[in-house]
Design a protein that fits this description.
Strand order of the largest sheet: 6-7-8-3-9-10
Order of helices and strands: EEEHEEHEHHHHEHEHEEHH
Distance between the termini: 58 Å
Radius of gyration: 19 Å
Number of strands: 10
Shape: globular
Strand content: 15-25%
Length: 263
């Protein structure tokens, strides 16, 4: 008898409209624990909107979003983070004058229970929570290769390092699922190689990863499975080799190697 494994993250019939535009149209995605899932497609395909629906920034017009069987629809983004879903954004959103350690410690605050009363009176509970938060922040900075710069200000980092710091801050929420929105955007080849190693290390640490990415060599290197969106609809899903050879995906997004040879 086959045992069915409940996906860690599932969206069913997900639909989102902005006026007359259907940005996401009846999309189903099911992601098992421990997988690296890539979400690809042309600009305007609905990829970032899908992440915004999962994380509570937008509320779907129709459909379900669940994390380990728990519905996320209607929850505030902070509660979705506590449920175990963290994300980064296309544009870097760091506190540039704060240190790396401070930026990441902020991410861990959703896992503390210190009250304003505890903070103001510097109670033992507040001190204990702060120590744990600092330890967790240093741990994730180590994972992304930035622990030796913990006391630097975020604004002093290179672009690629700032991207990695954003990932560290998301990891500090102790997620079970990490959503990365174009993490390789603007990176040079060495930074992309570093990112590949870090994403694999994150997956190996037990975190399921979902990434939107236009860097196809990166996607083909690390994704276990790929979901393809076009004009808000899912047009294909499968392993990298299947997606690379799918005629509909080639026509809608990937193109052919000799396409730019035509005059």
């Amino acid at each position: 008898m086959t045992t069915l494994i409940e996906p860690i993250l599932r969206v069913e019939g997900l639909t989102c409209r902005f006026g007359g535009l259907i940005a996401v149209n009846n999309v189903d995605i099911s992601i098992p624990q421990g997988e690296i899932r890539a979400l690809i497609g042309p600009n305007g395909a609905g990829k970032s909107t899908t992440l915004n629906l999962i994380t509570g920034i937008y509320r779907p017009d129709k459909g379900k979003v669940s994390m380990a069987g728990q519905s996320l629809v209607g929850l505030q983004p902070s509660k979705i983070a506590r449920a175990g879903v963290a994300r980064t954004f296309q544009t870097i959103r760091l506190w540039k004058q704060m240190t790396l350690l401070e930026n990441v410690m902020v991410g861990h605050q959703c896992r503390t229970e210190t009250s304003l009363f505890d903070v103001l009176l510097r109670t033992k509970k507040a001190s204990s929570d702060e120590d744990r938060t600092r330890a967790e922040a240093l741990k994730v900075l180590e994972l992304v290769g930035l622990a030796d710069r913990a006391t630097w200000t975020a604004g002093s980092l290179s672009y690629g390092q700032q991207r990695r710091l954003e990932i560290a801050r998301a990891l500090a929420t102790l997620p079970r699922v990490l959503l990365l929105d174009e993490p390789a955007a603007g990176m040079n080849p060495q930074e992309v190689n570093d990112l590949v190693r870090q994403v694999l290390a994150i997956r190996d640490s037990g975190v399921t990863v979902v990434l939107i990415e236009h860097n196809m060599p990166l996607v083909m290197r690390i994704a276990d499975r790929i979901t393809v969106l076009s004009f808000g609809k899912k047009i294909a899903e499968g392993e990298p080799k299947e997606i690379r050879e799918n005629p509909e995906v080639i026509a809608a997004y990937l193109g052919r190697p000799d396409d730019d040879a035509a005059s």
